[in-house]
Amino acid sequence: MGFLRRIFRKGGREAEKPPESGAQTPEAGEGVVSTVESSGEETPEMLGGDGLPAAEYFDDTAGTTDKLPDDAVAAPEPPLSTTLPLDVGCASHVGHVRQRNEDSILVITSTSLGDSALPPFGMFIVADGMGGHSDGHRASQMAARMVAREVVGQVYAPYLRVDPADAPGPIQEVLGEALRKASRNVRAESPESGTTLTAALVLGTRIYVAHVGDSRAYLIDGGGSEMELLTLDHSFVQRLQDIGQITHEEAATHPEKNILYRAIGQEHELEVDTFTRALPTPSWLLLCSDGLWGVVPPETILAAACGADGPQQACNTLVRAALDAGGPDNISLILVRVE
Length: 339
Description:
Phosphatase 2c, domain 1, alpha+beta, 20% strand
């Protein structure tokens, strides 16, 4: 199956008075106040709060009384906010066998820093267009974009408004309805096509997942010792495994392993799997099509995710591993490091 700096400076730069001939220039790091030439009159801007010239007021070597007492303890400097909470890598490859890449991936993240910072936000989607149908690539693109548009508009956009009453509705319901709306759109625009879709929304310290088909979402613990499958495949072989007719090993080589009983664009009233849970930190979130999980074993995925120099390098390594395993299908993945 084939699927799918512009810098603003406050105030102008003050002209520095050139040192007199023979005068020593201050060494870097010394507390020196630059002066501004004037017409000879002291302006309010040049005066401190007690009427002293500004340069003297701010220079603690001037002998003023506006200084911290000797036994005063300076307030601790707050930590510098520099680390992005979501570090993302992604990759997609047509593979060695397919003529067209019918997978689609979509990543949207937002970071806000400051005293009233917004919660970390990430929208991650993998859609795998059904290769047995025409326009599978178009179905995966349409579905991924529509789901992202609905979720960003209904879940994250309210946080960008001033009115606190505009809080988002139940997020799992928003996700489920977004996938159903995408399914109706695919049926109307490309009735002969279909696609899987796995969407993961990270908001603050929680993850919300909506899923249809056999693309997958995994959660890898921060130590790289465990990879938990979060989604259930909506496939014929998974049903056979559930009722005990075949084993996991038999499912991997079953001739009908690519047959889905649930997909976007293939049902009038689509049933969507949704759930939410707390997101441990640190951890890794992986979304991928069966072109990866179907040929690359879990231990290789774990080693790549936790041994690489960042998510993007890990994604590149995993695509190469899938190609080395034959690359029989399109390969797509999103890997998120949650700090």
